């Protein structure tokens, strides 16, 4: 029997409506007790003036394994996760080969076990090879442990394929997540379409590319049934479309990234590919609307879309460099900056959006500090002042525009299954 | 009030050009150049004009310097013009061709640039298919960088030579009305012209179908017009952009014939123009497409004058960036 005691922290557990200063005892990898008791333990973590929250969950990361292990591996990605306070991540299937069958799903879980850091859940591809044509063996992948399905990296262009995917997946109760992008309206683009792109002489990506597919999918969903999750939404109109669908009772959820809450297309003006991502950075108006959508619950959860790339790739011309940035290591601080400093939401809501909300969307038994639950716990110092240093990232990649940013919040201790996996 | 006086003073010193010191070691675009800077380049070019007319067409300004023509995109005119401009100033010229993007060779633009720099290059003239590539280059090398056209971002020396040609014909650009006609959305020539002309006080009109206008054109310092005939009578200069054949058939415009009907400059349309209107084209012309042959070769055409002036402008630009680099190398007193 091993015990771990987290002392005197402010325990925030939105799943159980808990927000109080107390001790938390872990016994044999499970939450044993929360309260004002005084017992000894094998290991003690002092959490005075800190937040003690359910382990953070990021349901949108790219760990590049199999295929691009130079950029990231499941092990290095999991290390970045725990360094950022995440105890669970969901890795996207746009690997090489794609995670579109049970064997590859199984491979992800084996590599995660070997790394033995964070819980890594696999997202399976909706279609074979993510080609958007034939349905992948979702049933087999569910058996292998896939927690959701998506062709992330590209949207499913053909509405008939999407309709069938939604229908088919409904029998497993797993969510279909979509990277909303109508290729004919964004193809070849590398930043938000508009004045800024025109002045920089770069091809733009029309906002409608995202909004039209989102709107289309909602209509498909109404007929097909199933559950649908809109990935990394980036525009004011997307938020509005989701808000209206939710009012109608459609089974839709949505996520947003820190970069779409903090930066705009203006940041592309130095042609630095660390500001290139898909969907692209939009405008101040979109940021305001996305923050409002976080505040009113239109957006359910916060994700990083952690997308590692080699330095040599990100040193290319803006037009030719690949999309995506990494932020697992510093995401919590970014959310604090985007949502708490701006008084958009409070800590309870922020933690809810990073724990129990994604857990519910995925249907995994995580994100709660209830007695008997898995002891996935993050201790957060929310009043520190620290500077992002990409050189210190646990991730293998450094493609991050936040280098040098000063942030207030960070994970100081990350516990997975009752074991401390990271300590600042 | 105070601001006005200050501006007045600035203007005066701009007119007395000898006091002005050029400090940019790169020329990446015309967007952020001040009026003073633009005028300084034009005046410097004016001074180089006679070199091309001498019996011995050579000046020693860049003797011992090495200029690289780093062209990632096909170009005959601009490349030759830069090459000749550099030779007239006695520089050594290294020709470097790399088709497509540098990615295909497994070497990044930075690698290529650093390799060249290791050979002791003073000025890189770069043509590239990606907007911003010259900027990227300027961030990672020590030598001067001159943009010879990047994606559809800017083509500053083309903009300057167009402006130089207009100034030569009219004396002053202030109040001039200039139409740029064609595929504005994908034109670097249009962008450089817009910035330069606007800063120098000319009024810019963009003419073309809405599908070939840049997004956010309403925020540019221009008037957008879809009917060429409506405005042609007021214009002092018509800059006819080259039709890019690879765009035909895309949903931007239906056919060459329709484009010609609506936006080409033909004798019929010329009748509505001012008698002394300047007809400009960055070349090479698609004869009979955007410009009727008779007009291209007619008395209003400045096309060959533009080529001549291109050389002069490029000499001035190479001279100025080199001078700025030399100033920066001097140890501070």
Percent helix of chain B, as a range, is 25-40%
**Poorly predicted ranges of chain A:** none
CATH topology annotation of the largest domain in chain B: Rossmann fold
How many domains is the backbone of chain B divided into?
A: 2
> Which chains have the largest interface?
A-B, 20 and 29 residues
Written account of the structure:
The complex is a heterodimer of chains A (424) and B (333). By secondary structure, chain A is of the alpha/beta class. Chain A has two domains: 3-51 and 374-423, Roll (Urease, subunit C, domain 1), CATH 2.30.40.10; 55-362, TIM Barrel (Alpha-Beta Barrel), CATH 3.20.20. Helices cover 30% and strands 23% of the residues of chain A. Chain A has 14 helices and 20 strands. In chain A, the strands form four sheets. In chain A, strands 1, 2, 3, 4, 5, 16, 19 and 20 form an eight-stranded mixed sheet that branches. An eight-stranded parallel sheet of chain A has the order 6-7-8-9-10-13-14-15, sandwiched between helices. In chain A, strands 11-12 form a two-stranded parallel sheet. Chain A is globular and about 65 Å long. The mean pLDDT of chain A is 97. By secondary structure, chain B is of the alpha/beta class. Chain B is 40% helix and 14% strand. Chain B is built from twelve helices and ten strands. In chain B, strands 1-5-4-2-3 form a five-stranded parallel sheet, with helices on both faces. In chain B, strands 8-7-6-9-10 form a five-stranded parallel sheet. In chain B, strand 4, helix 5 (133-140) and strand 5 (144-150) form a beta-alpha-beta unit. In chain B, helix 6 packs across helix 12. The two termini of chain B are 38 Å apart. Residues 1-15 of chain B have low confidence and may be disordered. The chains are: A alpha/beta (424), B alpha/beta (333). At the A-B interface, helix 6 of A face helix 5 of B.
């Amino acid at each position: 029997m091993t015990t771990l005691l987290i002392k005197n922290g402010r325990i925030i557990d939105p799943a159980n409506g808990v927000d109080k200063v107390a001790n938390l005892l872990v016994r044999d990898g499970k939450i044993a007790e929360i309260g004002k008791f005084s017992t000894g333990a094998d290991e003690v973590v002092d959490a005075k003036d800190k937040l003690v929250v359910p382990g953070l969950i990021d349901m949108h990361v790219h760990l590049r394994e199999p295929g691009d292990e130079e950029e990231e591996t499941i092990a290095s990605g999991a290390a970045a996760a725990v360094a950022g306070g995440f105890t669970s991540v969901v890795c996207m299937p746009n690997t090489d080969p794609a995670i579109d069958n049970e064997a590859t799903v199984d491979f992800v879980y084996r590599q995660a076990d070997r790394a033995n850091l964070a819980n890594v859940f696999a997202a399976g591809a909706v279609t074979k090879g993510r080609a958007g044509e034939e349905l992948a063996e979702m049933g087999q992948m569910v058996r292998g442990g896939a927690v959701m399905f998506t062709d992330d990296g590209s949207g499913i262009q053909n509405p008939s394929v999407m309709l069938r995917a939604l229908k088919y997946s409904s029998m497993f109760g797993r969510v279909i997540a979509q990277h909303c992008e109508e290729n004919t309206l964004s193809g070849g683009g590398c930043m938000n379409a508009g004045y800024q792109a025109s002045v920089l002489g770069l091809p733009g990506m029309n906002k409608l590319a995202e909004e039209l597919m989102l709107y289309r999918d909602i209509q498909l969903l109404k007929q097909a049934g199933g559950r649908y999750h809109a990935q990394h939404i980036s525009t004011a109109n997307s938020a509005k479309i989701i808000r209206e669908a939710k009012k109608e009772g459609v089974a839709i959820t949505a996520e947003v990234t820190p970069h779409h809450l903090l930066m705009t297309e203006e940041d592309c003006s130095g042609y630095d590919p660390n500001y290139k991502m898909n969907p692209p950075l939009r405008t101040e108006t979109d940021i305001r609307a996305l923050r409002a959508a976080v505040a009113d619950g239109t957006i359910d959860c916060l994700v990083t879309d952690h997308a590692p790339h080699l330095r040599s790739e990100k040193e290319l011309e803006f037009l030719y460099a690949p999309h995506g940035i990494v932020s697992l290591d510093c995401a919590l601080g970014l959310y604090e900056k985007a949502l708490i400093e701006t008084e958009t939401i409070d800590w309870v809501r922020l933690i809810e959006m990073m724990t129990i909300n994604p857990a519910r969307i995925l249907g995994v038994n995580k994100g709660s500090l209830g007695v008997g639950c898995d002891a996935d716990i993050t201790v957060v110092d929310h009043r520190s002042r620290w500077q992002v240093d990409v050189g210190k990232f646990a991730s293998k990649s450094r493609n991050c525009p936040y280098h040098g940013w000063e942030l207030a919040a960070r994970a100081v201790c990350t516990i997975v299954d009752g074991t401390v996996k990271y300590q600042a | 009030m105070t601001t006005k006086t200050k501006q007045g003073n600035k203007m005066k010193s701009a007119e007395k050009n000898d006091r002005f010191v050029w400090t940019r070691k790169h020329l990446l675009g015309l967007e952020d150049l001040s009026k003073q800077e633009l005028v300084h380049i034009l005046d410097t070019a004016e001074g180089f004009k006679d070199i091309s007319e001498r019996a011995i067409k050579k000046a020693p300004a860049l003797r011992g310097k090495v200029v690289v023509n780093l062209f990632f995109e096909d170009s005959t005119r601009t490349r030759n013009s830069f090459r000749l401009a550099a030779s007239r100033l006695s520089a050594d010229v290294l020709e470097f061709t790399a088709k497509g993007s540098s990615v295909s060779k497994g070497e990044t633009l930075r690698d290529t640039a650093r390799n060249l720099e290791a050979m002791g290059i003073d000025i890189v003239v770069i043509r590239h298919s990606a907007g911003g590539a010259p900027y990227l280059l300027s961030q990672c090398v020590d030598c001067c960088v001159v943009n010879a056209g990047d994606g559809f971002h800017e083509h500053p020396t083309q903009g300057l030579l167009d402006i130089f040609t207009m100034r030569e014909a009219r004396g002053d650009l202030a109040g001039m009305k200039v139409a740029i006609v064609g595929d504005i959305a994908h034109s670097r020539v249009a962008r450089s012209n817009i910035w330069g002309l606007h800063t120098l006080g000319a009024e810019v009109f963009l003419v073309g179908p809405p599908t070939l206008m840049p997004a956010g054109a309403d925020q540019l310092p221009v008037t957008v017009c879809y009917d060429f005939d409506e405005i042609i009578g007021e214009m002092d200069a018509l800059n006819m952009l080259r039709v890019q054949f690879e765009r035909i058939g895309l949903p931007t415009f239906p056919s060459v014939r329709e484009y010609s009907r609506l936006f080409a400059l033909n004798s019929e349309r010329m009748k509505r123009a001012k008698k002394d209107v300047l007809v400009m084209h960055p070349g090479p012309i698609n004869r009979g497409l955007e410009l009727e042959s008779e007009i291209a070769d007619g008395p209003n055409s400045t096309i060959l004058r533009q080529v001549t002036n291109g050389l002069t402008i490029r000499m001035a630009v190479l001279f100025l960036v080199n001078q700025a680099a030399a100033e920066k190398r001097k140890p501070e007193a």
